Amino acid sequence: MARVMIVGAGGVGNVVAHKCAAQEEFSDILLASRSVEKCHQIAQRISSPKLKIAELDANHVSHTVKLLKDFQPDILINVALPYQDLFLMEACLEAGVHYLDTANYEPPHEAKFEYGWQWAYHDRFRQAGITAILGCGFDPGVTGVFTAYGLKHYFDEIHYLDIVDCNAGNHGRAFATNFNPEINIREITQEGRYYEDGKWISVPPLSIHRSIPYPEIGDRESYLLYHEELESLAKHIPTLKRARFWMTFSESYLTHLRVLENLGLTRIDPIDYEGQEIVPLKFLKALLPEPASLAENYVGQTSIGCYLQGIKAGRPHSYYVYNNCDHALAYQEVGSQAISYTTGVPAVIGALMVVRGIWQQPGVFNVEQCDPDPFMKLLGPLGLPWHEVIDGASPFQDQLVEEVA
Ligand code: NDP
Question: Would you tell me how many other CB atoms lie within 10 Å of the CB of residue 296?
Answer without folding.
Answer: 13
